[in-house]
Amino acid sequence: MELIGSTLTATYTRPKTSNFLPAISTMASSYRNTQPALTMNPSANLWRTNSFYKSSSMPPNLSTMQRDNLDLVRAKTMFYPSNRTVLTTRYTPEDWYKSNQNNYRESESSRKSAERLRKDTIRLMQDREQLTRRTQENTSKNIGERLNDIVFWRSELSHEIDNMVTEISVLAEVKRRLERALAETEGPLQVSQECLYHREKRMSIDLVHDNVEKGLIKEVEVIKSCQERMRRHLDRAIAQLASNRAAQHELERDMSDKVTAQRIDDRCHHLRNTSDGIGYYRGIERLDPSRSLPDSWSKFTDDNILHSQSQRAASHKLRDEIEILLNTTSNEMWNQFNDVNISFANRISETADAKNSLQTHLARTLQEIFQTELLIESLKKALRDKECPLKVAQTRLEERTHRPNVELCRDNPYHKLVIEVREIEDTIHKLQVRLVEAESTLQNLVETKMALEHDLSVKANSLFLEQEKCMSMRKSFPSMPRLVGYT
């Protein structure tokens, strides 16, 4: 609908404000009101139909209707072109030009800022990509150098372990020879002592202190002296073997650690950005003060090798001393045995009642050993039965540690699980204490059994010597090779 006295492009509504244009109130003062506006009949808005009000979701109120009537009066007012400056608001060409220039400048500024940000970001991404690639290459190179160091120390450890294993084998063989030689001296010593004891039972004129008795006493002294020296060297050999095995254990543990480290570093050396199994580990880059340094790392292995070499040198020296000892003691005992040309009847130290008593105690000891072994098996089974409940409780605690954020709460199940773990551990500790006590008791019973069996063998041998006068026993004196530990 076209209004009379207006153009098709004219809009007689309230103009929109702009940030680039001056306010309407500043321009309205430049116009002169040359003619008052024509008034229309208030009934001019009666042309609106009921559908105008139906188009709104809410019924019009009084203020809305008044505002609509005012707009309609402005739109329907009849005026002449000479009244245009009074009814409408217009901007000057200068304002229009300034608005366009402001839009151009802000558009160019925004584009330049965006272009500058884009270029800086691309350059930053390229620089960081190159830095990341160089850092990763340097890290791979360092890991490769570390692998070479590990391979070198592994070869050194392997060579030293082979030498230590050989030394342990040789020293163990010398120790076995010494043990056999020490065991071989028990027979002659027992024969000599039994002969002396039997001669004390002589009666009347036969009870004399003759050269045979002097030879037997000297033989006992020589054998005991040899045994004492052998035991000292045997203790040294046992201690040296323990030191050698400890050094070997340290070398093997170091070797095992280096094998594991080499496998891990080799895998890390071959990891790439496209490899499987890579992931985020938050906080893993934080410095751990408990980790070793390269100097202390190499020094640790070097110290282990030096310690092993010093133990091998001490072991070699001890082997030479044992060889000299075996030759010396065998010559002394054999020469003394040749000086004693005859032997006498064996002593009777124990009666049949004593022997029967020992057998009775041995039988009771064997029964108690059997009962103690059953107890140990029961304790071990009880300990095994506690493993699964302890695993369940600890697994529950461990699984609950993975609850996220505030869900990681020390709630009632947590306290119950902690109490359960402590109770099971306390039970296991008590059972282990009882197991240790039972094993100690069993060991004491076994030692008692061995002592009883030894006493029984001595008593049986004494009875045999009493009957045979043990004249044939001295013919069983060990030969020279047996005295030096050869079978």
Question: Your description of this structure?
Answer:
The protein has helices at 24-28, 50-54, 62-76, 84-87, 93-184, 186-200, 211-269, 294-339, 352-400, 412-468, 480-483. The protein is built from 11 helices and no strands. By secondary structure, the chain is an all-alpha fold. Residues 1-60, 72-80 and 345-349 have low confidence and may be disordered. Helix 5 runs antiparallel to helix 7.
Task: Give the secondary structure arrangement, pairings included.
Elements: H1 24-28, H2 50-54, H3 62-76, H4 84-87, H5 93-184, H6 186-200, H7 211-269, H8 294-339, H9 352-400, H10 412-468, H11 480-483
Helix pairs in contact: 5-7, 5-8, 6-7, 7-8, 9-10
Which key terms come to mind for this protein?
single chain, about 475 residues, mainly alpha, disordered N terminus
| Quaternary structure of the protein | single chain
Which range best describes the helical content: under 10%, 10-25%, 25-40%, 40-55%, 55-70% or over 70%?
Answer: over 70%
Strands, total number = 0
Beta-strand percentage range = under 5%
Low-pLDDT segments: 1-60, 72-80, 345-349
Shape, per Cα inertia axes: elongated
Kindly provide the radius of gyration, computed on alpha-carbon positions and rounded to a whole number of angstroms. 55 Å
Question: Which structural class best describes the helix and strand composition?
Answer: mainly alpha
Please provide the ordered H/E string of secondary-structure elements: HHHHHHHHHHH
Average pLDDT across residues? 78
